[in-house]
Structure formats: structure tokens, C-alpha cells
Amino acid sequence: MMSFEWPWQYSFPPFFTLQPNVDTRQKQLTAWCSLVLSYCRLNKLYTMTVAEAQESPLFNNRKLQRKLPLESILVVLEELRKKGNLEWLDKNKSSFLVLWRRLEEWSKLIYQWVSKNGLTNSVFTLYELSNGDDTENEEFHGLEESLLLRALQTLQQEHKAEIITLDDGRGVKFF
User: Which pTM does this prediction carry?
Assistant: First the structure.
């Protein structure tokens, strides 16, 4: 596993306080959004609770003894939602799904792998796609099943795949 390289702002104490100046605050939110997406991508994190996020190294720099306050974390998460990189999983906004790749990007990656390996007209279980040996070196390996299913639904709408029910769960046939 590669180690995460924190951006310079992470070592800058004022980064952990949302700035009042509108321009500065927008740059700061952009930096926070970029940090969240990079961190989640490297660590293959898809779902998280706000409480977990609050305690994670992401918003809590123990070396500096600084943490982003909860209200500010919620502002960052809302900014990610506006950009299409986050979905709330409950009405209380206590847990969320991080889309460090959009659904269209996931579906494109999966279909490129299928095409590149000559696997059109093949059937796979969802497990084989996200956890199988053949996909080990692919970015979608380990993709959470709900996200995988939504990416496959996108392919189904494009008539590139059909989601099917198998004896032991769901599968997909690629065209």
C-alpha cells in the first residue's frame, strides 16, 4: 500500500479553521475537497460516518494537535455533494458515500477492462468483478457492491451490459 502524501496545507494550522474571507474560503474548500477525494481514493474508502470522518487523520492532524470542527467538516462534505462527489446515505446526514470517481467513470473503467480483455458476451458475478483474481490490478477491484451495481446499471442503460439474477446472487453479462 502506498503511503499518503499530505498536501502542504495539512501542516498549516489555519487550514483547520474555515476562513471568513470568501475567496480564501473557496480556495480552502477546494483544497479540502481535493484532500478528501485523494485520501479516500488511496485508502479505497467509499462509505464513512461523520463521526468516523471526524476522528480520522483526514480531519484530525494529531501532530499539529488541530482538527477541523464538526460544523466545518459538514461544510466540506456539503461542498463535495454539490460537486457530485458525495451522497448522503441517511436523512440525518450521519453517513455518506464518497464518489472519488463518478458512476460514469466507474462504468467506463469496467467496460474498458471487459473490452481490453475480449470479455464481451461473458457473464460475471458481481463478486468476480469486484473481488476476483482477474480484476486484482484494476482500480474497480474492491468496489463496494452498491456502487458496482449502480455503475453496471449505467452500462445497462447504454446497452453494453445486462444485470442478471444467478443462483448465488446477481451477475452481469457484457455485450
Answer: 0.86
Give the C-alpha separation, 136 to 86, whole Å: 25
Which helix or strand (DSSP H or E) is residue 169 part of? Answer: strand 169-174
Among residues of the chain, what percentage have pLDDT more than 70? 99
168: cell is 448465488
Cα–Cα distances (Å) from 25 to 7, 69, 98, 106, 109, in that order, read: 17, 15, 22, 31, 34
Alpha helices per DSSP H over the chain: 22-42, 50-55, 70-82, 103-116, 126-131, 145-157
Per-residue pLDDT of 58-107, as tens digits, reads: 999 999 999 999 999 999 999 999 999 999 999 999 999 999 998 999 99
Contact predicate 37/98, CB 8 Å:
yes
Question: CA torsion sign, 71 to 76 to 80 to 83?
Answer: positive
